[in-house]
Amino acid sequence: MPTRSYTPRRRCHCGTTPRITASPGTKACFASRRPRCSSSERRAMMQFVRRSISRPHRLLIGLLAVSLGMRLVLIFQPIEILLHKFLADDAFYYYALARNISHGHGVVFNQGVPTNGFHPLYAALLVPIFEVGYSFGVNVPVYASLIVLSVVTVSTAVPLYGIGDELHSTTAGVLTAFLWLFNPYILFVSLSGLESPLQMLFIATLIWYLVARVNRPIPTHRQAVVVGALVALAFMSRMSSVLAGIGVFGALALRILEDTDDFGNPMNLLTRLRPVFKSGVVASVLVAPWLLWSVLTVGRLTPVSGAALRVIRLEGSTPYSILVWEAMRDTGRFVWNYFFYDLFAFGPLVALLILGGILLVLVRGEQVRTLVVRLDFLIVGSLLYYPFYWFYELGMRPWYSLFTLSILSILLGIALAELVNVSPPKSVSIPRAAVVVLLFSGLFVASGVAHYPGGTYPQEVTKWEGANYIENEIPREATVGSFNTGIYQYYTPNHDVINLDGVMNPATYRANERGEISDYICERNVAYILDPQGYVRDVESELTLTEVSRFPKGTDRGGGTYILYRVQGCN
């Protein structure tokens, strides 16, 4: 049965003239050469401007400002505190890469070994930061990158607000933005120094555009182009976004097929599907240069980093079924952390009850069917996204969680708005909204305070101490290797610390895949390895490792013990 055509709202204001386009039922606005505004129209225009900066918009601007200010306060602390509280070792893969590019060494992490083990848009953003800031100090680009990521994360609240507003109400939009901006788990993950905030800005913008601007069932030419461009930007910011993109293209095609009665005419069907093909072509053209460079330089379409992690997981002692279970469990842990970040030992049960409550509220408010229809592309994309990480990648890392948490923020914002708006009078709904915000503010503050002392990655400050030791105590001509190389490589500019797990080094990835990492260590004359004891167990069985030093030297902040080994036994 044909579905009802959906056309997003468009408004024309003073100085513009509405014109009927070729598509029935739609209007477009174009600026007239001469403004035709009477005094009453000017007053109406001013009223429109005042309404545009209405109470919800002022509230949103206030939330954005407070959230950005809070992030800046957290950022401007000594680097060892940032390492303990926020920064992940993987961020320093990007920093070392961007430094090498800005210094003219090429797209390499280890000298002479081209790599594609990164996501290109974030790396491209970092290069000018390093070109300008690195001369002022090794940590200046790190702080600058965190400021940029904070602006990006805060900006993501704008399309999220638009999504909530379009799917339910202005109240839902404000609550969705609030949940995204002040959730402590999202805050800590977004300050890891990695690319996920950039990915989520484009994913959220894509979701907003699809629910608020794209015609149903058939997008216009311009809408198809914009959708393709947003999918490409999301892909370039984090390449797993291709799964969300496939979900978008698939859902758009299903909408058109559902509205089609004549399946016996292939040409007519292809004509109706033309916007989907256009979106795919636009996305493909935009990402093709990166993929071509990757194949020609490294011999791979996909980043070597994901393949390297998969090899390491499969070659470990953990059975495949347990790896799948752990990946699923970690996804559930992200949801738990969204509500009770280090707050309650029984957090998973409570989080499950809250999710059940959200579903009941949405069902009672008859929102589920509407959301399924309006977010069909997100459902299709999720059916690809999560199985990919669970069954193929066999792992979910904290910064992968922002995709899940953005969806959760949208659904929770709508559910809370449904509760707030259950009684029509404003005198009732406004106090309820205030109570909801206060309750979640208290929960977020308690969760953040509970988590902050222990830090997100306490081991990183121990690695920083080890990097300083390498730089000052190990001879420059001695080659150092590590299976966790980011911080060591970045903070030892006079050394080239070999990445042994292959995340940023295709040569070591291939050696790990063949089970020949010990041979590669000897081939590269690696004289020292700095890692926890468990990381070098396989190497230790083939080479002689003599302990040189242990870290941390002082108080252990919870990151465990890292050992610097002298490598011997190479023939």
From TrEMBL:
One of the record's GO cellular component terms: plasma membrane
Subcellular location: Cell membrane
GO MF entry, a single one: pentosyltransferase activity
GO biological process per UniProt: lipid biosynthetic process
Protein name (database record): Uncharacterized protein
Organism: Haloplanus aerogenes
UniProt KW keywords: Cell membrane, Glycosyltransferase, Membrane, Transferase, Transmembrane, Transmembrane helix
Topology in membrane: Multi-pass membrane protein
Keyword Cell membrane belongs to the record: yes
Highest taxon in the source lineage: Archaea
Transmembrane residue ranges: 59-79, 142-163, 170-190, 196-212, 224-257, 277-299, 340-363, 375-392, 398-421, 433-452
Keyword Transmembrane helix: yes
InterPro entries (UniProt xref): LipidA_mod_glycosyltrf_83
